[in-house]
Amino acid sequence: MDDRLFTFFGLISHDHTFIYLTHMLLAAGIALVLAKMAMSNLQVVPRGAQNVMEAYISGVLKMGTDVMGKDNASRYLPLVATIGLFVGIANMIGIVPGFESPTAILDFALTLAISVFLYYNFEGIRRQGVVNYFKHFMGPVWWLAWLMFPIEIVSHFSRLVSLSFRLFGNVKGDDMFLMVILMLAPWFLPMIPFALLTFMAFLQAFIFMMLTYVYLAGAIAVDDH
Asked: Where are the domains of the chain?
């Protein structure tokens, strides 16, 4: 990885796929460990990891409730909360010197975007039926269907670009910014950027979760449009 950040896994192999997979698996492993810690000793009055995880779940549920109502938000809570935890940890990894955010690799961000894209369309078809779901793509006026249908198709596919490139571009930019700061002032100056990048890591995870909820809400509430 001659043109990339130094990584500890890069000492084993400079192969792009190897770097990508190891950091992705590391993020998934950390997420599983955190979940295990939160559930290992459940108490009526939450403490420690359980308290943090419950606060996180409550926050994600509240976000979804504002978008699609409590019942639907609860239905899709496991998906959205898992995505948020995974993306947040993947973003945070890159802040630690010697590691690279897997979300700074387009393959990762695009895979997540495709997963969300396929799932919300599947849910729209499952909940509304094929005819009613695609009828929404034709707009409210039948004689404009020939124009609205291709526009809606392009609009939906553009969400792949929006989800993937927003996440990839922001995290990649943060990684490059951190690299420059560490080269210029490796000891004291990075403290402020570290705080800023931590905030940005959580913000990007929040945006991805919010858009997932919004797309799901639009897919399952076709009759309301």
From this structure: 9-224
